[in-house]
Design a protein that fits this description.
50% of the residues lie in helices and 14% in strands. Strands 1, 2, 3, 4, 5, 6 and 7 form a 7-stranded mixed sheet that branches. A two-stranded antiparallel sheet has the order 8-9. The longest helix is centred in the middle third of the chain and has 37 residues.
Length: 381
């Protein structure tokens, strides 16, 4: 079993690190973070160099590379700056639904602008008081002539206020086919759609999130992704794939937080000694580095299996859980290495810590991830 990356993958990783090091200006990043602004200019440059949507086929503007290649880029971006890295990685959030299950016309219409950075994709599937149940939605789609009427509300929609399409998961209002779901593409300028940007958050402040209110919105039949009744399966498949990217984000955040703590431990002096020479600090750094390597191995394995036509949903969920927990724990420990200075807003480790706390909710909340793994292990008994 060869755990080494290929020469091409090493080059991709290096190019992503150099791009992030040169383009993620610390002062600009701090201002974007404080103001809750999206890094449009950085996204545009990343798209021009092919770093966004690397796994999308060339005919739609992507590089047609693997999920592992994309994970390497996401990891390096989040390692340099957690906020910018997550914003760039999630600019294509939901686009895989169109790529994997959409029609040729839908792919040709929506994917190229997303890969160019001219628009972003959004996926609206979360609802208030939904709990852990993704088998039914309060948002409904009712057949209406050559299309559907959508009514309902969605919450925590990533990229919800950015230009670009929103994929809305709905319950099909059909007594003959109870429990069936549909995924419909909605334009943000459509009548009947009210987008309410969310206010301040603990983390992921550069990433626009919104609540949607949908009232008698007309969606033409050509905006249906796949066939009626396939919405739930499409969502599950997307979340399985998304877990790998979330794990890559978390691994990058963990590594970035570790880098900051390690550098500080080598420079900060107390009692005439570098604090990195103290046994407690050395033990903490050893534990942090071990956690990162475990997270990285699981993430790379999940991505490698996906690329080799052997996707393993259980491993994907494990990768996300382990990486998200590692990111939060490593960021916390790194912050403790900084001491009181780590809590200063202008200190980057403080941002890494806040962003690390948000990775767990990307896709599905962590408790739902664990429930899925448990079902894979012992089923429903």
């Amino acid at each position: 079993m060869d755990f080494r990356l290929s020469k091409e993958q090493e080059d991709i990783k290096k190019a992503a690190r150099e791009f992030a090091g040169g383009e993620f200006d610390p002062d600009v990043a701090l201002e974007l973070e404080k103001e809750g602004q999206y890094p449009f200019e950085i996204l545009k440059r990343a798209c021009e160099l092919g770093f966004v949507g690397m796994h999308i086929p060339e005919e739609y503007g992507g590089q047609e590379l693997g999920i592992l290649d994309n994970a390497l880029v996401v990891e390096e971006f989040c390692r340099q700056n957690s906020g910018i890295g997550m914003a760039l990685a999630l600019s294509v959030f939901g686009a895989e639904m169109i790529l994997r299950f959409g029609s040729d016309d839908q792919r040709e219409k929506y994917l190229p602008p997303i890969i160019k950075g001219e628009s972003s994709s959004s996926l609206a599937y979360l609802e208030k008081d939904q709990g852990n149940d993704f088998t039914s939605f309060k948002t409904t789609a009712t057949r209406n002539g050559n299309g559907y009427l959508i009514n309902g509300n969605k919450s925590l929609v990533i990229n919800g206020s950015l230009p670009g399409p929103i994929i809305v998961l709905c319950q099909l209002a059909d007594n003959r086919r109870p429990g069936k779901q549909v995924a419909l593409i909605v334009e943000k300028h459509a009548n009947g759609l009210v987008i309410s940007p969310m206010g301040g958050r603990v983390g992921m402040r550069m990433l626009p999130m919104a609540d949607l209110t949908i009232s008698a919105l007309k969606a033409p039949h050509e905006n249906l992704i796949g066939d009626e009744g396939q919405g739930q399966g499409q969502l599950v498949n997307f979340l399985n794939e998304m877990n790998i990217e979330a794990a890559a984000m978390a691994t990058g955040i963990a590594q970035g937080a570790f880098d900051l703590g390690l550098t500080y431990a080598k420079q900060r002096e107390q009692f005439g000694r570098k604090i990195g020479s103290f046994e407690a600090i050395r033990d903490r750094l050893a534990d942090m580095d071990t956690q990162i390597e475990v997270a990285r191995l699981l993430t790379y394995r999940a991505a490698w299996q996906f690329d080799n036509n052997d996707p393993n949903p259980k491993i994907n969920y494990m990768a996300k859980i382990v990486s998200a927990e590692s990111a939060l724990e490593v960021a916390r420990d790194s912050l403790h290495i900084f001491g009181g200075y780590g809590y200063v807003v202008d200190n980057l480790i403080e941002q890494f810590y806040r962003d690390a706390s948000m990775v767990d909710i990307i896709g599905m909340p962590g408790e739902m991830d664990k429930s899925f793994i448990a079902n894979q292990i012992i089923g429903n008994i």
